[in-house]
Amino acid sequence: MEQIKELIDYYLTFKNVYLVKNTLVKIVSLTTKDNYA
């Protein structure tokens, strides 16, 4: 049972990192677009 909990924790951490990375990429592309506009 402990192993499953670790897998879930790992999955959630991975998902959060992925979402944060996507958000940062969007913000950066938006700000650079504004700067060149």
User: Uncertain runs with pLDDT below 50, 5 residues or more?
Assistant: none
Into which percentage range does the β-strand content fall?
under 5%
Please summarize the sheet with the most strands: none
For the terminal residues, how far apart are their CA atoms? 54 Å
* Radius of gyration based on Cα positions: 16 Å
Oligomer, anyone?
A: single chain
Categorize the overall geometry.
rod-shaped
The class by helix and strand makeup works out as mainly alpha
Number of E strands: 0
Order of helices and strands: H
What count of helical segments does DSSP give? 1
Portion of residues in helices?
Answer: over 70%
Average pLDDT number: 90
What features would you describe in this structure?
Helices cover 95% and strands 0% of the residues. 0% of the residues are buried. It has one helix at 2-36.
